[in-house]
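Re: export button greyed out
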Amino acid sequence: MNDMNPDDIIGEYREHTLSFHDGTQRKVLVTDIETPIPDGRLIVSRTDLNGIITHVNRSFVDMSAHQEEALIGQPHYILRHPDMPSAAFKDLWNTLQEGKKWHGYVKNLRKDGGFYWVYATVIANIRQGDIVGFTSVRRKPSRKKVIEAETLYKTLS
Amino acid sequence: MTYNFSVSPDFNPSHISGWYIFNTWLQRTISEEIHLELYNNFELQRKAIADDQLDLIYANPYDAALLVREKGFIPIASPSNKSDEAIIAVNKASQITDVEDLNEGTHISSTDDPDVRMMCMIMLEPAGLNGSNTAQTQRDTYVLVAKDLLNNEADVGFFLEETYNDLSDIIRQELRPLVHSQIQVIHHLLLAGPKLAHKRDEIQNSLLEMKNETKGEGVLKSLNFECWNPVEQEETEFMIDLMDTLTAE
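Workaround output, generated via the alternate export path:
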């Protein structure tokens, strides 16, 4: 995946390098600008078994600040924010592999370097007994839960 | 053989005659006898589903999971431009202007419509509200939910968006939408049960042609539908997966 482009960033930014489970790395540029999910929105996406995005809804596109064409075919970790501990994603994959529903609070990265918090739920798509992909739905969390997650994740990073 | 057809009980009461007109049109079109049974509430309809009494159903997304995954129903079509959305409304004079203004103990009025309840409870989460820290009253109709708001007997009311918009002007003028869902990808759909599965393609083709026929166009108008779109199995499975992510853990 391409590194983030400074021309896309709004405001002052910091640079981080993220390492992913598939051995790749990405330079990300982050700001302190939060864009809360508007009330009533649900962010929906689907991926294949490898976590490659196959479907997004309009809210996903709007909140990520990417174009839809730029999202389809990309790994879902295009949204990965450096403040998220890798332990959270390990837990996600382990839970899904057991055929269980995963849910948790996630800080997502926008194309413009900003971020948005979500309460995410992910389930495996099971067809004729086989897992064929994953569906993720994200919604607006309560501020209290975000503060709790922020505190917890700082201890895990 | 007579097949049994039913419609999700959250249909707009002003469309009752439309569903009878639709059923008459469908019987003539596919040359089969079909009995239309409209239930007053979800509990009665669920019992009919559990007892395998239904062969054709215009179902809401919440019930589609049970029908497709446990009862072997297959999707046929859904009306175009009619995704299911919900509205949480308050009395126009309410001091509440944002979901996050709501506190524990908030009094909710709603119907037994399962997908609307689910969507609206999700929309209350940013305020830290859930089933255990709110008071809830269940009403038989959306008009009664609106009356609870007008009489200040509830702080918020849950509505299917389409039904909210169909409330009389006099009622709506006294209410104010607090938040409006934008889910975009869930919708009601027509499903065929195992006994009618052999007619699925014929019904689907007929529905897709409705808008091009004089009689069919009139039937669509009576239901306030523009036209039908085909729905395939995977699309329905996706919607069911999505509903699954939204149900309580």
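Chain B has a mean pLDDT of 93. The button fix ships in the next patch.
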